[in-house]
Design a protein that fits this description.
The protein has about 260 residues and is an alpha+beta fold. It contains seven helices and 14 strands. Strand 5 and strand 6 form a beta hairpin. The structure holds adenosine-2'-monophosphate and calcium ion (CA) (3 copies). One calcium ion binds next to loops.
């Protein structure tokens, strides 16, 4: 049976909105968190509760779909499925804990290797980003389109901490200094999904990150692409939803110049 993408998109945005309400409700209860790999890598009970909520809804409605999420609530080898849900229940958990309003629930749906639906919800700002492949990107129903040209020197660029040598972590990657000096500014926003959606909205102009997992960017990449953004890896190759890797996402006017920092 063929997949009804319209219906899939409506279902996905519905459950992500509901998950946003759950997140806000749970945040008002006492917020416990624990360290994962180190003191800055945090996870809360809300992360897994939101993922559990989404997984239960998806399994009930689409039992034949594969699901992968950061918190590992649903263990499947996602590559066996034609249709795959890629979930980050909270992208930007540290921001969530600090109530810094740049975090969100991110869902990307990939069908036969192609991103077909992206949904990202920022509960602090009550912004629901939605995109369907070839049918545009929207925030709260308002169409997003990066059709107005811009200059590199006008850009506001988001990034994540980026080391010259990832093992030593003793010097910041020179590209960040270069970006800082040649654009309007650099922001370490602390959330990949929201950064990508803010580019789609036009508040940020680009986002660079050396290493992310597919759940960090799947939803945001689908939204930004539909808004007209350009997204590659840092070496200019195309982004897949199968492997983790770098992200270089930008307004179409400045992607090439940003890429040249990493490839020239
Ligand atoms: P997370 O909040 O879902 O963990 C922070 O710069 C961005 O990188 C966030 O999107 C964050 O996602 C992601 N990230 C991925 N791995 C991380 C890690 N080990 N520690 C902190 N943030 C991580
Ligand atoms: Ca995490
Ligand atoms: Ca994440
Ligand atoms: Ca997360």
């Amino acid at each position: 049976m063929d997949l009804d993408i319209k219906e899939l998109g409506q279902f996905a945005s519905g459950i992500v909105s509901e998950a946003g309400l759950l997140l806000l409700k749970l945040r008002n209860d006492s917020l416990d968190f624990e360290e994962k790999k180190n003191h800055a890598d945090l996870v809360t009970v809300v992360d897994s509760a939101v993922e559990r909520f989404l997984v239960d809804k998806i399994v009930e409605r689409y039992p034949s779909h594969g699901i992968v999420g950061e918190e590992g609530v649903f263990e499947t080898n996602v590559s066996h499925f034609d249709t795959q849900w890629i979930i980050d229940p909270i992208d930007g958990t540290t921001n969530f804990i600090h109530n810094f309003p740049y975090y969100g629930i991110s869902v990307g749906i990939v069908h036969k290797g192609i991103g077909v639906i992206g949904v990202v919800y920022n509960p602090s700002m009550n912004e629901l980003y939605f995109a369907e492949k070839d049918h545009g990107a929207y925030v709260n129903g308002e169409k997003l389109s990066l059709d107005k040209p811009m200059l590199f020197k006008e850009a506001l660029v988001s990034s994540t901490m980026f080391w010259e040598d990832t093992r030593k972590k003793d010097a910041i990657h020179p590209s960040l200094l270069h970006i800082y000096k040649t654009t309007r500014g650099l922001r370490l926003v602390g959330g990949a999904a929201i950064s990508l959606c803010e580019i789609a909205k036009g508040t940020l102009s680009a986002y660079v990150a050396p290493m992310l997992s597919a759940w960090d960017y799947a939803g945001g990449v689908i939204v930004l692409k539909e808004a007209g953004g350009v997204i590659t890896r840092l070496d200019g190759t195309s982004v897949s939803f199968k492997e983790s890797g770098s992200i270089l996402a930008a307004h179409p006017s400045i992607h090439q110049e940003l890429l040249s920092i990493y490839t020239d």
